[in-house]
């Protein structure tokens, strides 16, 4: 801070704090606030000695305009500008400056462009506009109301760069537009663009079911197409998702043809919004998964052929989504609204300091997310921003649903309102997230974690109990689960197979349960198992069993890309910056395990062909699904709705005799090691999944 006699901060609409270095403090000093052609007396109501400083809490009786400059003066004539303090975190501030219109950012026409930005506490805002020829103009904006600054610039500004110069708390900061939709590389500037000139999408999702009709397949845009053994024309980029007729060395489909062949209904794309932690001008320089939010409404330039062309990244992502829709594959967007990459440079912090984050009693940003900042999603303009953002992606890019990173750090009111808004756009949009309970205080009561029953029932949760029960402990790789040989928790396994909703075991409805044993986080299933055994054939049998349990359980099945052909990341437990050599999807493994992939493909086809895996409520489960633990600890599931099926999940290598009603025939099994002894008796000796159909 610059050398002043004292510093002052506006904490409420009738209260401010003065911080005075002890050497400058004088008892009985009188203070006044000056601004907006007023001189306002300050009444000291509290005094605190805080080390080498004195803190005075003062009250006043006047209406203050946070967009105007005020000073605090003492009787000796020393003065200090009144900075914004805790006032931004008061309910009254949130209510007064809640802007409800949907026109923040820019509104383009060929004759003029209107710019609006929300900052109730800025003392001046200037718009920097840069023409395609490089001419720079700095234009003053006008404060209107509700915290919004506005300016209309005449002429056709298509492909003009812009950003804001904002004077807040005595300093001018250069800020990108939080509502920006186009950018140059590495988020230096936003662009004005004409969305009507972008690629006009031709296809929409064909998905028209409930969440349990979906089969989710998580993938990273770069990982999916960076394998040098496949001849992608645009490796690691959006456009790779449009490339058809690609084959492995053994002639198996690759890329989008593979997704279509496998039969998944939705791909969940890991972050495709603009994120930090990479160099968009050199895509091979630094690797990152993308959980570093920078510009929430701008597609990442890291996956684009030209990150400095404002239209390229938009058009290429739209083409990729259109291509997936054309092939009957819907698109889930992985979004991160629990934290930002850089707390200091995030536009909301520069525009309204202290507003965007949770803070502790000392005013320090909390760190529950592990990223040194946690977004305060309950604040009205942060909530509005989140809902505006997801709505924009649905309306402009035809996104079909959202996976929320660390959703347990987002408040229930935001998630419930967001869910309802999306339902109004399209009732088939899917919403789910990581519902870990991360707060231990009573703040947890208002967060969207899976233990909070006030979360709307059409929001799903990653079922980590399913993962831990079937695979074994994620963070202790040597600990087994049911599919890897731990047989003493079959009662819990049964509940997992019932979507954790039988007698409301975890969820109100099975459709809330996202069933999985592997995702981008942590070790792959294959790598975990290598800590338990060196027997590769045993590992493959166990993984195939676990994947079958994911697909054939009540709830929503979720697969990690490459899980079906035993993806490995060389035992890297957290590969978020580990580069292509660790993260790439190795398509040769698909060649090596094509028979196992075909088994998973047939399971997917079976699930899609019947409603018997898609029950919602406990009463439906009671009527239509019976789960029995056999003496050998194998589990038998009898489904009698839609088609009549009996499924045996067998986790051991012990020979076992099972009796199947004569009217059932063997339909599908993960192994050929099954022997029909007589009309009803089978002997099975291998780990696997055995399906009988009436």
Structure explained in plain terms:
By secondary structure, the protein is an alpha+beta fold. Among the domains are: 7-84, Immunoglobulin-like, CATH 2.60.40.2320; 95-175, Immunoglobulins (Immunoglobulin-like); 623-693, Immunoglobulin-like, CATH 2.60.40.1180. The chain has 15 helices and 35 strands. Helix 6 (380-397) runs parallel beside helix 7, helix 8 (464-470) packs across helix 9 (490-497) and helix 11 runs parallel beside helix 14. The relative contact order is 0.08. The model has no long low-confidence stretch (mean pLDDT 96).
How does the SSE layout of this entry go?
Elements: E1 7-12, E2 15-21, E3 31-35, E4 38-41, E5 43-50, E6 53-59, E7 71-74, E8 79-84, H1 91-96, E9 105-108, E10 112-118, E11 124-130, E12 136-140, E13 142-143, E14 148-154, E15 161-168, E16 171-175, E17 190-191, E18 216-219, H2 221-225, H3 256-262, E19 266-269, E20 273-275, E21 293-299, H4 312-326, E22 330-335, H5 347-351, H6 380-397, E23 401-404, H7 412-425, E24 430-433, E25 459-462, H8 464-470, H9 490-497, E26 513-515, H10 525-529, H11 536-551, E27 556-560, H12 580-583, H13 588-592, H14 594-609, H15 618-624, E28 625-629, E29 635-639, E30 645-650, E31 656-659, E32 665-669, E33 674-676, E34 681-684, E35 688-693
Parallel strand pairs: 1-8, 18-19, 18-27, 19-22, 22-23, 23-24, 24-25, 25-26, 26-27
Antiparallel strand pairs: 1-2, 2-6, 3-4, 3-7, 5-6, 7-8, 9-10, 10-14, 11-12, 11-15, 13-14, 15-16, 15-17, 20-21, 28-29, 29-30, 30-35, 31-34, 32-35, 33-34
